[in-house]
Every structure is written in structure tokens, then in C-alpha cells.
Amino acid sequence: MTHYSAFxxxxxxxxxxxxxxxxxxxxxxxxxxxxxIIGGGGHGLATAYYLAKExxxxxxxxxxxxxxxxxxxxxxxxIVRSNYMIDGNTSFYEHSMKLWEGMSRDLNFNVMYSPRxxxxxxxxxxxxxxxxxxGNIMRMNGIDAELLSREAVMKRVPILxxxxxxxxxxxxxxxxxxxGTARHDAVAWxxxxxxxxxxxxxxxxxxxxxxxxxxxxxxxxxxxxxxxxAKKVAMAVAGHTSHMAxxxxxxxxxxTHVLQAFVTEAIKPVIDCVVxxxxxxxxxxxxxxxxxxxxxxxDGHNSYGQxxxxxxxxxxxxxxxALVPLVSRLQLVRHWAGVMDMSMDxxxxxxxxxxxxxxxxxxxxxxxxxxxxxxxxxxxxxIATERPHALNARFTLDRFHRGYQIDEKGMxxxxxxx
Amino acid sequence: xxxxxxxYCGERDYVEFGYGGDAENTMPELSDTDIGRWADxxxxxxxxxxxxxxxxxxxxxxxxxxxxxxNTVTHEVISVRPAxxxxxxxxxxxxxxx
Lengths: 418, 98
Ligand SMILES: Cc1cc2nc3c(=O)[nH]c(=O)nc-3n(C[C@H](O)[C@H](O)[C@H](O)COP(=O)(O)OP(=O)(O)OC[C@H]3O[C@@H](n4cnc5c(N)ncnc54)[C@H](O)[C@@H]3O)c2cc1C
Ligand SMILES: [Zn+2]
What we know:
The complex is a heterodimer of chains A (about 425) and B (about 100).
Chain A: H1 6-14, E1 32-38, H2 42-55, E2 60-63, E3 79-80, H3 89-107, E4 118-122, H4 125-140, E5 146-149, H5 150-156, E6 172-176, E7 180-181, H6 184-197, E8 201-203, E9 208-214, E10 217-223, E11 228-235, H7 241-247, E12 254-266, E13 274-276, E14 282-286, E15 291-302, H8 310-323, E16 332-343, E17 349-352, E18 358-362, H9 372-385, H10 399-402
Parallel strand pairs in A: 1-2, 1-11, 2-8, 4-13, 11-18
Antiparallel strand pairs in A: 3-7, 4-6, 5-6, 9-10, 10-11, 12-15, 12-16, 13-14, 14-15, 17-18
Chain B: E1 3-6, E2 10-13, E3 18-22, H1 35-43, E4 51-57, E5 65-71, E6 77-82
Antiparallel strand pairs in B: 1-2, 3-4, 4-5, 5-6
Bound molecules: flavin-adenine dinucleotide (FAD) and zinc ion.
């Protein structure tokens, strides 16, 4: 593996860039591994990386049905933040934030983490009170938060509608300065490269179609490229969590729903942070290429189809126009969708499953990109030591039976409304 | 656009309907004190990749609850019938009180 540095760039520039080698090995499946991870998204690849790096477990395969990063990793709107306020979430997402801050250096791969700030807008005095409460809870947990007045928001984000006609007047907002964005593909590639260099096999075009059993215990997987034995099987399949669990006879507190995202044509820089509308579910940022990146609500009915329907396009554009009037002059150039593992309380599940030999990591809803490093880190710990780390100890499956849901929004078990 | 053929109103865009979720989840008897069965009912779902029975409420039409079978991959609607012919949606279920 070539070490990337200013020097290697310079050297390769002089040699016509002919000396670069592959970033990671495209491996063939071996008959058996210590750990097989199902799903080559950010979470699966990060898990493999930390298994090797933190626990010295390198006889590991990541089995991906398509190509790595082709699922939600490559479909999300790349927002990274830790503005949570419920125990269980706060310390986990803050740990993730810290890993983001050091990720490019740790992986020797530029993931373009950009702490450009994220603002949740408030449109009423009551929302300002709620934002202040959230901000105080965050600060008590050591997470940065700053309450912005209307004037401060106007100064920071001049393109919003501050006119007397604004449908939802802006009263202020809650800013997390360290929040921002990162390059989603680079996260998959960086973890793949780091894991591969430590001996992990990354196997693409290999779909898991079932499990191998021995006296009630899972001892491997059946795949489209033949059976693979494994001492431990760990799923990290995001929108296919219910589906993969069902093959193991498990029923989960998860519904699968489709979420869309949108990009406009590229324009000059107009917005240098991430802004979330507080009136309807909608958010906006600007990519380094200049396109405005927009996202909002789920389509709202169970779906495994990785494509969205038109009413949500209209809803998002209406929200965009209400908040940022200048978008009405822009063209949408792309929109796409991913399938989300929506858990019943909006928080993830990461634990040993009730089936011996199988581990669960899912229920990330539409917020799992920011969780990628901490998810991999904690999942690796759970798999290696057979016990959760304190950071993921609350993300159990049995919390629903014990009445310990982690419902950040207080929405209840209607995942399509989360 | 996903369209649902309401037995009362005919074929309509899905935006006229409110989604009511899984129609195969049965509520335990109110006298049931088993926390496991209640947790299963409230939180756990089959969430199939394929045919899914689900409730839709024709909010902007006849206001009837419907039981729709739809494929969650292709979004093809396979059948629609009034929910009253089968089971009422969760919130509407009447329980006899002695
Ligand atoms: C439109 C959209 C916007 C989003 N915006 C944000 C955001 O701004 N911030 C944020 O934090 N989160 C966001 N998310 C959520 C985030 O993308 C996900 O929660 C996260 O990526 C899920 O983890 P993952 O990366 O491992 O999943 P994925 O990348 O989906 O990885 C799962 C992998 O498993 C593979 N797989 C499935 N079944 C099998 C099988 N049987 N055999 C082998 N492989 C299999 C899939 O092909 C896939 O590659 C967004 C999601 C979407 C769709
Ligand atoms: Zn009707």
C-alpha cells in the first residue's frame, strides 16, 4: 500500500502518475474466516478496520452484494453532527465526532471532513426555548452548542427568507460549530484501504442468501459465490436489516422506508454551513462542486425499492423555496433514494443477537452516516469481546421489552413519521 | 406515482391517503398483562421485502380505512379492500368492556 503524502503526490506528478497502486485488494472468498461481516457500507468496512486495528482480528471478510459504498454510504447527504440530548445517544455520537476529527490522519486518506457548522433553525419562541434546552444538555455532555439570535443567523446565512412574508419567520437557531460534512465515498474507500492493508478480505459482488447452522447456532453464510464458514457473522446491511434478520428467524423493531435526496446545478458559494428548517423536515448545504444538496422527509410507506416517488420531490422543493427563495431559479440535476432501516424509537440497535454466532448492527434510520466511525469502533468491540462497549451498551434489542426506548424526538413507534 | 384504487372512490394518487402501517399486527386483549406480547405488538414488525399488508386511510376522499396488499420492492398494488371487512386499524379497534 502506498503511503499518501505531499511527497508521494509530488513524486507521482513527476512520473506521470503511473506508479499508483490499487488502494485495496479485490479478494476472492476463502472457505472460512474468524469473522464474516455482511455489508460493505461504511459501517461494515469500519467494523473490519477496527477489528484489525484495535483487536488484532485480521482473519475477516467483508461480503458485499454490489460494490462497496453503493448502498446508503454513497447515497446520503453527508451531514455529520452530534447534537443529541438523550443518554445513550449523546456520548456515542460525540465519540463519533471525535473519530471524524482524526479520521483522515488515522486512515491516511482524505475523507474531506469539513466542520462547517450546522444550524437547526427556530421559528417560534417555543422552539427557541426547546433549542436552548437542547443546547444546555449538549454542553453539559461536553458537546459544543451555541444559541444564535435572529441577527446572528442573518449574518451567518444571508440567503434565507427574512422578509415579512416569510411563511415561517426565523427567530434564531442552534449551532453546532464542529458539525459539518464529509466525502461519503472516501469514507468507504478509506476504511476499505485501511482494513485491506491489515489483511481483511473485501469481497464484492457476493450476496449473502442465507446462514449455515449447527445445532441452533450460526456457523457461516451461504452466498452467491459459495458457502463461507465463520466463527462469527456480523450484519451491517442498513436497509436490509429486517430482511437479513428474518433469514435467521428474527423479527425486529424496524421498518424499511425510502428516503430521497436532491442536488441542484452548481453555482458560486452561497451557503457555507448546513441549515435545517425547523418548520418542516428539510435541510440544505452546498457541496464543494457548488451544487446545493437538499433533503427532507421519507416517502412514508414501507419500501425496499431504492427509488422515490414524485410527491416528495414537490414537498422538498416547496420547503426549499419557502426557506431559500433563490432556489426557484435553479435546476435540479439529480435525485436518488436509499432504503432506511427505521427503528421504532429512532435509535440504533447494536448487540449480540438472540441467535448464537450472529451480531446485529442496524436501525440507523437516516442518521447513520455520522455514526460510521463510532459504529465500526463499538461493533468491533462487541464482536471481539462478546460484550458491548459502554458507548453502545444502551443500543440493545431488549430495550423495547423493558421500556427503555431511546426516542430522541418523542415520536413513538410510527417510523414513517420520524 | 403510486396509485390506490379505493373501492368507494376509484383510482387515486396516494397523496390523498394517510399511511396506517402494518395490517397484520394483532393487538392483544386489553386484559392481557404479558409485557412481551404488548412489546411485540407495539414495536416489532415483519417488514417483508415483497408483499406487505398495510392500512391506508382515504383522508381526502371517502375517509374509509382500507387494507392494501402492496409489493414493497416494485410498489405494485396487489389488492385493496375495506378494512372493516377484515380488521379495523389499530387505533380504531373497539374492545368490549364488561
Ligand atoms: C438520501 C439519504 C440521505 C441521508 N443523509 C444522511 C446524513 O446527512 N447524515 C447521516 O448521518 N446519515 C444520512 N443518511 C443515512 C446513512 O446513509 C445510513 O444510515 C448509513 O449509511 C447506513 O450504514 P452503512 O453506511 O453501512 O449502509 P450501506 O452503505 O447501505 O451498507 C449496507 C450494505 O449492505 C449490502 N447488503 C445488503 N444486503 C446484503 C446481502 N444479503 N449480502 C451482502 N451485502 C448486502 C448493501 O449492498 C450495502 O452496500 C442518509 C441516507 C439516505 C438514503
Ligand atoms: Zn375512498
